Amino acid sequence: MTKLLEVNDLRAFYGKTAALHGIDFNIDEGSVTALLGANGAGKSTTLRAISGMIKRTGDIKLCDQSLMKLATEDIVRKGVAHVPDGRGTFMQQTVENNLQLGAMTRRDKAGIAADIEMVYGYFPILKKRRTQQAGLLSGGEQQMLAVGRALMLRPKLLLLDEPSFGLAPLVVREIFDIFRRLNKDEKVSILLVEQNASIALELADHAYLIETGRIVFAGCAQDIKNDEKLRRSYLGY
Ligand code: ATP
Predict the structure, then answer these.
(1) Which residues of 3-39 are buried (b: 16+ CB within 10 A; e: fewer)?
(2) Ligand 1 in contact with 45 (CB < 6 A)?
(3) pTM score above 0.90
(4) CA 92 to CA 112: how far, in whole Å?
(5) With a 6 A CB cut-off, is 86 part of the ligand 1 pocket?
(6) What is the pLDDT of residues 24-60, one digit of tens each?
(7) What are the respective helix, strand and coil percentages of the chain, to the nearest 5?
(8) CB 14 less than 6 A from any atom of ligand 1
(9) 114 exposure class (CB count in 10 Å sphere: 0-12, 13-18, 19+)
(10) Looking at domain 3-90+154-234, does it have CATH number 3.60.15.10?
(11) What is the rounded distance in angstroms from the CA atom of residue 99 to the CA atom of residue 150?
(12) Domain extent listing, the chain
């Protein structure tokens, strides 16, 4: 398997306080990797560290090239698209403008138009709502728009922070089915941060469990699902 992302001895800091204490993990090209753990374990911090949004040390390599000296916008240009918790869509803008804004780093007009149609293909409800303000969408639709906007970057790696948060179970299922299709059909690799371990493990190939800034278990998602003791100890189900 080719490694898309390699993280070594990653430490991250809020001011002087360390929130990650030297974590190591890899993401195989084409895979879905889940990062699971309780509230405050360091999951969102890990995504922020990859995107260069907080102070960090250690090394993070994408396709063998270190991201450590790059600014966030250059990390985005390298193909890392971050869908933060809280989603970060432009509420006053229409759905379609949000998608256009997602393609800000691109110049290929025809490719952008084709990708907007690709996003509408995966999320037909967004096509119906294309002229509506993003702020008027339901929670599920906003999550779809946030993912759609990230896809407009044609990312190699999609970082998803708690995509299930606040959504009804049926909507969560629908969105996770679309993640699966995006992974299989568009070959987008995904790093998925979730508190909803059960649904994350259904989608993921590999998973890492994180506790207070340290990785406490790494393995294939199927093994974690089958390990009742591990699930009860770390994932609470
Ligand atoms: P959650 O699901 O609650 O977001 P998480 O696993 O994503 O959990 P993080 O948000 O990464 O956890 O938080 C890891 C640690 O860093 C926690 O101790 C948290 O209090 C701290 N932390 C997170 N954001 C900040 C911040 N902006 N300033 C200071 N400390 C922070």
Answers:
(1) ebbbbeebbbeeeeebbbeebebbbeebbbbbbbbbe
(2) yes
(3) yes
(4) 22
(5) no
(6) 999 999 999 999 998 999 999 999 999 999 999 999 9
(7) 40, 30, 30
(8) yes
(9) exposed
(10) no
(11) 8
(12) 3-90+154-234
